[in-house]
Specification:
Oligomer: single chain
Shape: globular
Bound molecules: threonylcarbamoyladenylate, magnesium ion
Helix content: 25-40%
Largest sheet: 11 strands, mixed
Strand order of the largest sheet: 1-8-2-3-7-4-6-5-9-10-11
Number of strands: 15
Strand content: 15-25%
C-alpha cells in the first residue's frame, strides 16, 4: 500500500530524506501530481521508469526551485530563459534546453536536452527547498493512463507499490500538464500545449514561436498518441452528435458535457463547468470517474478552442479518444 500524508513540515522533510536516500515519492504541483526522484541518482530514475511502466525513450522534467537551480542542470541558460523564468516561474511552463554534462543520461532518456520547470504549488516548493536539488518527475500515473490530480488518483494508480509516500496537496488547481517549450529549436517550438499559450510566450520573447501540431509530432516522445487515456473507449463530438449517438445506444454511455443538464437512462451525465480553468481542473477527475462508472463508452462534448487553456483541454481530449 502507498501512504497518503498530510503535507506537514515533518512529512515534507521525510519526503526530502527519502529522495536523498535514492527513493521515489509522489508530490503535488499546480498542474498534476509528479512521481519524483533525485535528478542525479540513476537508480532512483530507473525506479521511476519501472514504477510507471514508462518507455525508456521518454525523457523526464527536472523540477527546480528557481532559475538559478535550473542552471545547474542546463548548459545554455540565456537571456531568453531568464525573461521567460521571470515572467512565468514558478508556474506551468517547461523549458527544453541543452542538458548540463553532469546530468545523468537516465534523467533525459539519453537525449542531449533536458526539460526544466519550477512548480508553483507550495508543497512542491517546500519539498524543493528542503531537498536542495533538482527533482525529476513525470506525471504520477501509470504510463499512458490519465494524469493524477489528487493524491487518491496517485494511490489508485500505484496501489500495489508497497512503500510509496504521497504528499497530499489537495486537488491540483490547473489540472492539465505544463506547456513544453523547446528552446533548442529556432524559432522556439511548443511541443505540448498547456496553460501558458504561444502568444504570451512570443510577447515575452519578442519573437516568433512555432506551435508544432501537437497530434502529429514526435520531438516530445511523451506526446505520442493515445496518452491520457481512460480504459473505456472515448468518443468526441458536438452536443448534437453525442445526443444522437446516445439515442442509438442501448448500453450505458457516460456523457461528459458542458451544455447538457440531463441525459436519458440508461446513460449517465457528468456535467462540466463552462469556464476553461474550472473545466481543466476537473478534467482528469471526470475521466477517471467516467471510467469507474462502467459504461460501454464515454461520450465527450468537444469544447471550443478560443483560449490557451481550451486548446490544451482539446489536445488532452483528442488524446484520450485516440
Ligand atoms: O505539468 C507537468 O509538466 C507535470 C508536472 C508533474 O510537472 N509533468 C509532466 O511530466 O507532465 P510527463 O513526464 O508526464 O510529461 C513530460 C513531457 C513529455 O511529453 C516528455 O516527452 C517531454 O515533457 N519532455 C521531457 N523532456 C524532454 C526533452 N528533453 N525534450 C523534449 N521533450 C521532453
Ligand atoms: Mg504524463
Amino acid at each position: 500500500m502507498s501512504t497518503i500524508a498530510e503535507p506537514t513540515h515533518e512529512a515534507i522533510n521525510e519526503a526530502a530524506r527519502v529522495l536523498g536516500a535514492g527513493g521515489v515519492i509522489a508530490f503535488p504541483t499546480e498542474t498534476v501530481y509528479g512521481l519524483g526522484a533525485d535528478t542525479f541518482n540513476v537508480a532512483a530514475l530507473n525506479r521511476v521508469y519501472a514504477l510507471k511502466g514508462r518507455p525508456s525513450d521518454n525523457p523526464l522534467i527536472a523540477h527546480v526551485a528557481d532559475a538559478e537551480q535550473a542552471q545547474s542542470v542546463t548548459a545554455d541558460w540565456d537571456t531568453r530563459c531568464q525573461v521567460l523564468a521571470e515572467r512565468f516561474w514558478p508556474g506551468p511552463l517547461t523549458l527544453v534546453l541543452t542538458k548540463s554534462p553532469n546530468v545523468p543520461s537516465e534523467a533525459t532518456a539519453g537525449r542531449p536536452t533536458i526539460a526544466v520547470r519550477s512548480p508553483a504549488h507550495p508543497v512542491a516548493r517546500e519539498l524543493l527547498s528542503q531537498f536542495e536539488g533538482a527533482i525529476s518527475a513525470p506525471s504520477a500515473n501509470r504510463s499512458g493512463h490519465v494524469s493524477a490530480t489528487t493524491a487518491a488518483h496517485v494511490a489508485a494508480d500505484f496501489k500495489d507499490v508497497p512503500d510509496l509516500q504521497i504528499l497530499d496537496g489537495g486537488s491540483c488547481q490547473l489540472g492539465i500538464e505544463s506547456t513544453v517549450l523547446d528552446l533548442t529549436q529556432n524559432p522556439p517550438a511548443i511541443l505540448r500545449p498547456g496553460s501558458v499559450g504561444s502568444k504570451a510566450i512570443a510577447a515575452v520573447l519578442g519573437s516568433e514561436v512555432r506551435v508544432l501540431d501537437p497530434m502529429r509530432q514526435s520531438a516530445s516522445p511523451g506526446t505520442a498518441l493515445s496518452h491520457y487515456a481512460p480504459n473505456t473507449q472515448v468518443v468526441l463530438g458536438t452536443r448534437q452528435e453525442l445526443l444522437e449517438l446516445a439515442a442509438a445506444m442501448n448500453q450505458r454511455a457516460i456523457v461528459i458535457a458542458i451544455n447538457l443538464d440531463k441525459v436519458d437512462p440508461p446513460h449517465e451525465l457528468i456535467h462540466m463547468p463552462a469556464s476553461a480553468q474550472e473545466y481543466a481542473s476537473q478534467l482528469y477527475s471526470a475521466l477517471r470517474l467516467a471510467d469507474s462508472m462502467e459504461g460501454c463508452r464515454i461520450l465527450i462534448e468537444l469544447p471550443a478552442d478560443d483560449s490557451p487553456v481550451w486548446e490544451a483541454v482539446r489536445n488532452r481530449l483528442k488524446r484520450a479518444a485516440s
